[in-house]
Amino acid sequence: MCTYLQKMQPRVLFSLVFMLMLVLMTGSSDAGRTKKEKGKKSNSACKEWEWGACEPASGDCGTGLREGTCKEIDDTKTVKCKVPCNWKKQFGSDCKYKFGNWGECDTETGLKTRNGTLKKALFNAECEQSVKVTKSCDKSKTKSKGKKGRKGM
Question: Is the pTM of this model over 0.85?
């Protein structure tokens, strides 16, 4: 029986080493990648994608899908997107602006304004270089900052 165990030891050892090498080889492809890179799928050979507008799943705002096409390799892909449901909807979700402070209230119109300059255009969007937004001067629309959950003492 002793000779049988002596013959089996090299086979078991070889099997363990082989399995360990397989595990190390398959795990090494992700080892040098960052967490952000691991979540990304590999990019195709396409250099220039043409992206369509974000189409909300229901209504005229909210989450939806955007389709991209690549004529070089005849490929299409769809990505998730979001159309804002607030005042930013008029500029589109692909135009990002940096806004200044609100101006003084115009007593004639009851509105105050502020200007924004284009910071970034996503998905090759056509955006205006500067925009102007207005809002009501009415202070009754602001939320009260009272203390919640406290009962009279």
Answer: no
